Amino acid sequence: MTATGQIAAHGLALQVEDLHVSYGPKRAVDGVSLGINEGEIFGLLGPNGAGKTSTLSAIEGLVRPDSGSIRVGDVNARANPAAAKARMGVQLQSTSFQSNLTIREIVRLYAGLYGVPLTRAGIDDLLADVHLGEEASKRFSQLSGGQQKRVSLLIATIHSPPLVLLDEPTAGLDPQARRQLWDRIERLRDIGRSILLTTHSMEEAQAVCHRVAIIDRGKLLTVDTPAGLIEKHKDDPRVRKVAHGQVTLEDVFIGLTGSELRD
Amino acid sequence: MSNEASATLGRPPTLSGILRALLQADLTVQLRNGQALLLTFFPPLAVLYGLSAGKRGVQLGSPIVKVSFALTLGIALIAILGYTASVARDRELGVFQRLRVTPAPTWTIMVSRLAVQILSMLAMSVVVLVAAAVVENVRLDPAAYLLTLLAVIFSSAVFLGVGQALVGLIKSVDTVNAVGRLSFLPLVALGLFGHSDIFGTTFETISRWSPGGAVATLLAGAMQTAAWSTDTWGAFLASVLYAVVFAGVGIRWFQWSTR
After folding, report:
1. Residue B203 lies in a domain
2. What is the pLDDT of residue B40?
3. Is B90 exposed, middle or buried (0-12, 13-18, 19+ CB in 10 A)?
4. What ipTM, to 2 d.p.?
5. Which of A57, A94, A160 is most worth mutating to test chain B (most B CB atoms within 10 A of its CB)?
């Protein structure tokens, strides 16, 4: 990883260039370029409707970009989506699984979809590893919010992908569950996974992300380490105006994106 | 761990592995859904018994026609009410979006669901044909049974096409359910009168060429191959047309997400 917001010349787990996504006349992503280094946790910060999920959706293959290129490792994701999807794990913002399947059956389904051979004992081991061994026979809807997020993360990483995309992974969790999930995200980083996550939480961005990009109205406004962003923007009049004392990442975020309410 | 091997390779899984995983899951969901099972077996058996009783039953046509209508009703219920409800609900919950971010080609997700529906229809047909042998003393030769099951698969294409069109054009779960129930009368129940002139010949003609009427005629023709006629060929061609048009609309305008 580079010390600042620069993209390293090699070893990129994900490279997005000049991405444009529209929904009818509305432009959701407007020329976004970003690169994620191997073993890096990269945070995408933005207010509601800023283009975070649309950017992720384009990378995941859920929406077709108007233009731009997406490379997952050495795979061109737009030309070869199946190969790209095999190299990435995805946790959607609100995930749901077939309501009549048990957790064990859900894990078996997704292991099959990623071509991972798992025995029943293997599935139970994986569930025990995320403290869900006793929930194996329950339905997804019967789990708590934290347990559901753990199932989602387990499934996102069941094929040990080099790149993991997490859309607001800790939204709606209590502090204990949030900390547990941060630990799991950091463990993924420790075994060499690259992670792109979106979040509203400055605390989360500072706690787990190597680098953070702030996005608003479909455009990337700035990219750097959390400390680098504060240093870079601490004298910006828009940031000074909203700061109460020492400038924080939240001050930078609000200063750059504005303080009006978003839908 | 055993899943480490795929980590370094990052290769897409095989198509057969994907289909096996999807089919296993969809079949489990179907078998575990008590409401779907009830919808699959109870109404066609009730109709078969109901049509066999009383004077009106005699007017509606031969025993073969009553069996063909029970089969038509069963197929239509599974496709227009069961299939559409499950697809609309899962789409609203985001189940499809979760599946679409895996390497599984999108067509496999739908093919697996359709295959499970066709299996349900075949199971229902076997039960109805056994009941018909008991209730109406309708016993076919082995070739006719085989042809009838082939006609069931073909008829399922008509109503699954209708279901696909419904769920393709309408996003909301509640609206899909409501429109499914409302469309049942013109699409299916109308076909009940295609073999009877109790409401006049014009009504009979409309009824005979409705999707339900065409499918009922096709099924009746398959059950008595000796009586296969130009009407049966007409019903066959009408069924092809309905299947292609409805499925085409449903595939063309289907949306994977409610957003």
Report:
1. yes
2. 83
3. buried
4. 0.89
5. A160
